[in-house]
Amino acid sequence: MWKIFSEIDIRSILADAERTPRLALIGADGKSSAFQGLLQHGPRSAEQLVTALPCYRLPLQGEDLAALAGYDLRIVLLDDAQELRSDSLAPLLAQPAPLLVVLDPWQPGAGAVDAALGGQTSELLRVARCALGDEKQVKEELLPALLELLPERELAIGRAFPGLRPAVGQKLIANTSRVNAGYAAGTGLAEMIPGLGIPFAVADILILSKNQVVMAYKLGILMGESGTLAEIIPKVAGVVGAGFMWRQVARELVGFLPLGVLLKTAVAYAGTYATGQAVYQYFVTGEKLHKQDMKRLFDDALARGREIAASTVEQVKGKREPALLEASVDRPAKKKRKLSLAKRRQFQI
Fold first, then answer.
1. What is the CATH number of domain 22-149?
2. pLDDT digits (tens, 9 = 90+) for 103-122
3. How far apart are the C-alpha atoms of 148 and 177, rounded to whole Å?
4. CA distances, 211 to each of 111, 206, 243 (Å)
């Protein structure tokens, strides 16, 4: 267990999180101020300095376009439909940096933006139909589009802008829960092969716990913490019981019982999800969840996990079971073990 945890590259996680993506706003002063407010107000925002964003106005000048080419993401806040015909939009899309266009719901949709850009399409363009004052639209339309344009930079942008922390935190928890569910499904199928049951059940304890440790550490970094693994993890160990990883160990012992792959997958998802929510709550409020709240979280996650388990097991079964069965029949035990270890690494976050 110690060897597995010592392999976690904490320095790289923290270093990546501290490299704040460069964002620029393009639009009227009122909308730019409102957008900055959305980014700057969130969990633990009072504990850090405000990260101000540069603002530009349409139509853009040549020097503005040159400067905007150096940003990681440009966000265009359109005041009215007339600005869709601005000659500045097409040059912005031609630059290599991503472009997010924010439209009020009453304005023309994505088709109008595409027409204004001369029919150009790009993976670097997203259009969000959202009123900045509508919390639901911001949560469902704007923030997911923004994060989608900065893949693998979510932790850094959430650390810099507290308004993005809930979206980034929930995405991290959901992704880790699915990764652990996928791993549990894969090893659950492998355990059907004679002789592999106990080795894979032990591997579950190590890999699922490692993924939970990384998730908890990333949630701390997201909320502005800057310590090492040894400094941050003890803070949250008591949040979900006497060491949250050991709670998962107990749950994963169902791998030794004839409870089926689906239940094992659902338990892995639910245990990870409940742990993530408890850790997130702690970093937001400084308080641990009550036992009954934790149980309710797990029960709700288990119900959802059962739904996810069915599709996950089918996907993993189609991709992994033939290889595992072939390995068990045609290869000696030592090679089987190496194969399983290589496949296990695919499920580490």
1. 3.40.50
2. 888 766 556 666 655 555 57
3. 19
4. 41, 9, 14
Top pLDDT among 162 and 313 is at: 162
Q: What is the DSSP string of 229-252?
A: HHHHHHHHHTTTSS-HHHHHHHHH
- Strand ranges, E, within the chain: 23-27, 55-56, 73-77, 99-103, 125-129
Mean per-residue pLDDT for 135-154? 94
Whether the CA torsion 144, 148, 150, 152 is positive or negative: it is: positive
pTM of the model: 0.81
Task: Write the secondary structure of 264-284 as one string of H (helix), E (strand) and C (coil).
Answer: HHHHHHHHHHHHHHHHHHHHH
Q: How many CB atoms lie within 10 A of CB 179?
A: 21
Give the closest residue to 274 by CA, choosing from 255, 287, 261, 293.
293
Per-domain boundaries in the chain: 2-8+162-345, 22-149
In this structure, how many other beta carbons lie within 10 angstroms of the beta carbon of residue 337? 14
* Residue 327's pLDDT band (cuts 50, 70, 90): very low
- The shares of helix, strand and coil residues in the chain, as percent rounded to the nearest 5, are 65, 5, 30
